[in-house]
């Protein structure tokens, strides 16, 4: 006889008018269900989860240690025939990824594509990227530091937190004072008309980004629009 279990993933994401009453309905379902119901969340301290936890067995998972991840990554590296990553470099990559297994695997995959040539300095560059906060990245987005960066590097800043970054940009883009440079690399302040045109273009781009976000997070949940993370 087959046994069944119902898994409710990301229950802390139940919010908004579309999900109104969702937690209470889930609690009601738990009370009358004849099969086990597993509820998974990321934010255990969310106020909605506190009420749900009263009807669940509270099983908490802790981030794995560097040693545990190291052993698992060695197995993967061996099977993928990647042998030129030093143990101390692997530990640094794991630490730089905040002991996130998925991010560690993704980083190792990138290193292997680049020939597997890793060192401690390169591994620490991951930590610099991971430890950036959205407010610092917002400042960077409005600075000239990104002028010579590729579109991939620029999109990485957005996808660092693709829910918060658009809000920060929308909140601050009108305060930005853009300049243009001529062939002699001399800065010139924009005229009012030029400034208004850039604001209009930025507004259109923000609106287009919001439409894309709606396609991702709506009921259709078109997650393929997001990059691999």
From TrEMBL:
Q: Which domain of life is it from?
A: Eukaryota
Its BP terms in the Gene Ontology are: DNA replication
Task: Please name the GO terms that the record assigns under molecular function.
Answer: DNA binding
Under Pfam families, the record lists: AAA_lid_RFC1
Q: Which Gene3D superfamilies has this protein been placed in? A: 1.10.8.60, 1.20.272.10, P-loop containing nucleotide triphosphate hydrolases (3.40.50.300)
Query: Could you tell me which InterPro entries the record lists for this protein?
Result: DNA_pol3_clamp-load_cplx_C, P-loop_NTPase
Keyword annotations for this protein? Answer: DNA replication
Q: Name one GO cellular component term.
A: nucleus
Designated name of the protein: Uncharacterized protein
Native source organism of the sequence: Adineta steineri
